[in-house]
Structure formats: structure tokens, C-alpha cells
Hints:
It contains three helices and three strands, in the order βααββα. By secondary structure, it is an alpha+beta fold. A three-stranded antiparallel sheet has the order 1-3-2. β2 (35-38) and β3 (41-45) form a beta hairpin. The chain is elongated, with a radius of gyration of 15 Å. It starts with a strand and ends in an 18-residue tail after the last helix. The model has no long low-confidence stretch (mean pLDDT 91).
Amino acid sequence: MKPLYIDLPTVAGMVSLSTDSVQRQVREENFPKPRQIGPRRVAWLVREVEQWAEERPVSQILPPENTGRRAA
Length: 72
């Protein structure tokens, strides 16, 4: 079963950002806000994070030449 909620480190890994970058984007209202799931616990809805990721624009910047290549 797919999780409904994920914590900050998992969110950061899922979207390839640092935890600081996720928190900054939440403050700047450029990323979904976490939900209160307990008295002292917050987490993100997986579907909201996935939706945010799907809505990112396609990059015109090509990856560096060495991306994905193994040394011979």
C-alpha cells in the first residue's frame, strides 16, 4: 500500500531537494504545506507532492555531459 503521508526527509528525497530547500519553498508558498497529523507532528500528502512535481515546467537546460555515464 502506498503511504498517504510522508515526513520532511522523505519529501526532500522524493523531489531531489534538500530539507532546507523544501522548508524555504513552503515558506515562500511555492511548495505544498504540510498537514497536521498529530499534536506535534506534520507530514505531507503524497498526492500533493506528486502533483507539485508533475506541474514543474519542463527544463530547457540539458543535463551535464557526464550524467549517467560510467568511467571506462
